[in-house]
Amino acid sequence: MLRLLLILLALAVAGAGWLLLLRGDDDPPSYSPVDLGHDPWAYSSDREDEFESRAAAGHSHVIYAKSPGGIVATAGRVARWRPQIEAAAEEAGVDPDLIEGMVLLESAGRPDAQASDDLEGAVGLTQILAETATSLLGMRVDVEQSERLARKLERARGPREAERIRAERARVDERFDPEKSLAATGRYLKTAMDEFGREDLAVVSYHMGIGNLQQVLGAYGDSEASYAQLYFDASPDRHPRAYRLLAGLGDDSKTYYWRVLASREAMRLYRDDRAKLRRLARLQAGADSAELVLHPPDRTTSFESRDEIDTATADGELRPVAGGALRPEAYGLLAYIRDGVRNVSGVRAPLTLTRTIRPDGGIHATGFAFDVSRNYASGGQAEAFQFMLDRLQALDVIAWMRDARTIHVTASNEGRRILAETGG
Fold it and tell me: How far apart are CA 181 and CA 372, in angstroms?
């Protein structure tokens, strides 16, 4: 369990930005540490379902933002394949909702989807590589013929001829046959479940590869760990090799299972609560992160002048920091991130806070957002900061995005948990 010692936040001016001070022997006595005793967001097996649900919510933005034609249209395309998905899932003995989530994530429900112009690469509803299709899944794939028919399809004269060419291509390249593509995905998941004994790890391996996942689990030291345990418990200081292997596989692999769960939830909303799906789609489309989902504009107070900020600070609605102020929720999470970076990296040099509340509209006017400079004292500090950002996003506690010079962080309301635990 990652244990973080939380310290009351102190900020001081340095250069052009505001420094997040780290506790030292020569710090003023008014900044004495508060021993939290435990991390309120540490992984434990009895919170497995909660962590999976949080991770799905925390990684939903990309699902909404990148769905062709929008999430509602994408979910409609995926839904039409439900009978074939259920047939494949029943044959393989896996959850059809997970396969449906994979279809949304992999192809947005488009059977002709291609990752690139090279048909050796991933294609079809479930984006299967040519090599995987032939060597592992027993599919017929003639790449040369498939490419010839792809060129012919570009010259098709009308929908009827195009449909005939697509049918011919599906015979020579079964990855373009939706039913066979789904059945092959089911076979893969069954094979992976036989290997790992867990459905979650089987889905993870679909993107990561069985061998890569075995290597990460071996480095972690528990081949029976759930993916939630592996993801949330591995850190640069406690399981450095496992953490770095996982990080080295890239965000797409590392967060694949969370995005499948986010896609599964989108499909559930499409069937059960389409109004909520549309509302989330509007909020997700309104910013480059999920910040508006955390704080919908119609439900969140903004501060429109410096006088309003000063009054709110005096009343305790905002917490003062050097050169600005933050909501208590953001204040608590800022302290949590700062001390987490220090404890994980062992680096005492401060990060640089460049922006807090501003009465100029947008999320900064709410007091929930702050920016941190991307100038780091060392590679270890940068790695620890990235670890904290990824972990808190996966817990749906923050939303964040990167620009050329800063990391922009929006805190959820859950920062109050830190203050409640510390009495801050």
Answer: 45
